[in-house]
Amino acid sequence: MVPGGDSEEAVEASRSAPQRLVEWAIQQDGWVRAIVAEVLATRRPVPEQALANVRDRYLAEKQLAQGDHEPVPTLGDDGATGDATEPMSLTYLRGCDGVNALATGQDIEFNPRMTLFFGENGAGKTGYVRVLKLLANVRSAEPIIADVHRATAPRSPEALIGFKVGSSEKELSWHGDRGVMPFTRMTVFDSPAVALHLEDNVTYVYTPADLALFKYVYEAIEGVRTLLQADMTQRLPQQNQFLAAFGRETDVYPRIEGLSGSTNLSELETLAAVSDAERTDLDALETSVEALSNESGAWTEMLRSRATVMRSLIT
C-alpha cells in the first residue's frame, strides 16, 4: 500500500482507456500521435484523406520527402484533444446549392434547444437532412444529386454551415465532403435510419466506445502502411521499355539493357549524336530500301503473269 493513498494496482486500474492510449502515443513518432489525436477528437475511424496526410507526415519525418506539417496537437491526460472537450452546436445552414432541387437563397437558423422543420412532400426537408448526414458520415447517408433541370447547378453540392464549439463561433464552406470534423460527433436519426437499423438484416457487434479507440488507431496505422507499400510497389524498377527499339546485334544494346541509376547519361547522349555524313547515308539507305521494295513488287507481278501464261499453255 502507498502511505496515505491508494495502492499502485488501484491507480493502474483507475486509468481510462483514452488515458492509456495517450500515454502510449506520447512515446511514439509524430505521425502516430497525429493518428491518435484524430481518433480521440472524432472517436471514429480515420478517413482516407487524413490517412494520406499522415503518410506525407511520415515521409517528411523520416526525411524521405520534403514537406512541412503543423505540430501535432497536445494530447491531454483525459484523452481528449482540441474541440473534443467543448460542446458543439449548429447555428445556421446557408447557401445550399447543387443539393437535389433545393431553391437557392434559403437560410436555416438553428435554435439552441430545438429546431422544427415542417412542410409538404417535396418541399425540401430531406435535402437539408442529407447535407447533415453526409457531414456526420452516418451509416444511412444518401448521395446528393444536383438539379438536372438547372444547367447552372454546380457539379458538387455546396453550403455554408455555421457552428459553435464552446463559445467560439465558426463557419465551414462545405463542398460535398463526407465525414467532416467536428460534425462527425453528431448523430442523425431519420426514417431511412429506422429502416436500416430496424428492418434490414444488419448484424450488430457491440464494442465499448473507449475500446474501439484502439481499433481505430490500429486500422489507421495499417492504412498508412498500405499506402506506403503501394508507393514502394509503384517505384520498383519496371521492365526496360527501350530494349524493343534496338537489335541485339547492335553495340548500343548492352548499354540500354544495363540502364540503371549509375548509368552515365553523357555517354548515351554521345552515342545518340548523328553526324551529317551519317544522316546522308541514312537517307540513301532509306531510298535504296524503298527502291528494292518497289522492284520486288514488280518482279512478283511479272512472275505471277508468267505463271498464268504457263498454266494456260499446260491446259
Q: Could you give a quick summary of the protein structure above?
A:
The protein has 315 residues and is α+β, with helices and mostly antiparallel strands. The chain is built from 10 helices and 4 strands; from the N terminus they run ααααββαββααααα.
Contiguous low-pLDDT stretches (5 residues minimum) are none
- Main sheet strand line-up: 2-1-3-4
Helix content: 40-55%
**Between the first and last Cα atoms, what is the distance in angstroms?**
123 Å
Number of helical regions: 10
Shape: elongated
Write the H/E string, N to C.
HHHHEEHEEHHHHH
Mean pLDDT: 79
The total count of strands amounts to: 4
Class of secondary structure makeup: alpha+beta
**What is Rg?**
35 Å
Binned strand content:
5-15%
Q: How would a textbook summarize the main sheet?
A: 4 strands, antiparallel
Describe the secondary-structure layout.
Blueprint: H1 8-14, H2 17-26, H3 30-42, H4 48-61, E1 88-97, E2 108-109, H5 125-136, E3 158-165, E4 168-174, H6 191-199, H7 209-235, H8 253-257, H9 265-272, H10 276-314
Antiparallel strand pairs: 1-2, 1-3, 3-4
